[in-house]
Write a structure and sequence with these properties.
Elements: H1 3-19, E1 23-25, E2 36-40, H2 47-53, E3 59-64, H3 71-79, E4 82-85, H4 92-103, E5 107-110, H5 128-136, E6 140-146, H6 148-152, E7 165-168, H7 175-181, H8 186-205
Parallel strand pairs: 1-7, 2-5, 2-6, 3-4, 3-5
Antiparallel strand pairs: 6-7
């Protein structure tokens, strides 16, 4: 971790624990080295930081490329491993930046739904995460966040002190899909992207709240 990232990481862990009564489950499932995709549901601006605060390795987060135009803030974002992407994260430059981080052995946080939910319900899954999985060969870990919509959803300007929980799932295996993608037609390839995205979202939904004691790694 860079000094800036570590300070933000420690501060986040403290604030989330005190204000949100932050709970973390199965952080040991996230490998400490090597490229990996952490795919999560999305309900709050705080989601990327909640995911990152639970593990002892730096994560890469997506941020709109326009934010990097501000000199001081842009440097701060870079020190926090922010990945510049266009508005919806589907552009060629954004994809190239994401794949580059993964190939360099970084961990990248992605949201298959693309944007924050407006009503707390599950949203339609975009195929972009499937494309990233095929192109990168990185393992995928589903992550589910609980309580973030109630604490800091789109309908709130100020976060409320509600309990929030992050649970990391088991690694998903897409070796068969990758093997087929290497040989199939373009039409089939698009279907594979969407199938992978749907499978990842199903795995996120399947992560149930834990009853055992939560812990930090």
């Amino acid at each position: 971790m860079t000094t800036s990232y570590r300070i933000a990481w420690l501060l986040s862990r403290f604030l989330f624990t005190v204000y949100f009564r932050y709970r973390v489950y199965n952080p040991e499932r996230v490998p400490l080295r090597g490229g990996v995709v952490l795919a999560s549901n999305h309900a709050s601006y705080a989601d990327p930081f909640l995911i990152g605060a639970g593990v002892r390795r730096p994560l890469n987060y997506l941020a709109r490329e326009t934010l990097f135009r501000f000199p001081v803030f842009g440097r701060l974002l870079k020190s926090w491993n922010a990945v510049p992407v266009d508005r919806d994260g589907a552009g060629a430059t954004g994809l190239k930046n994401i794949l580059s981080r993964l190939l360099e052995g970084g961990a990248v946080v992605l949201f298959p739904e693309g944007t924050r939910t407006s009503d707390g319900k599950w949203q339609k899954v975009r195929s972009g995460v499937g494309l990233t999985v095929i192109k990168s060969n990185a393992p995928v870990i589903p992550v589910r966040l609980f309580g973030t919509f109630e604490a800091y959803g789109r309908h709130r300007n100020v976060p409320l002190p509600r309990t929030v929980t992050v649970k990391y799932g088991e690694v998903l295996d897409f070796s068969k899909a990758r093997a087929e993608a290497a040989l199939c037609s373009k039409a089939r390839l698009k279907q594979i992207y969407q199938e992978i995205a749907d499978q990842i979202m199903d795995a996120i939904r399947d992560l149930e709240p834990c009853r055992e004691k939560a812990r930090f790694p």
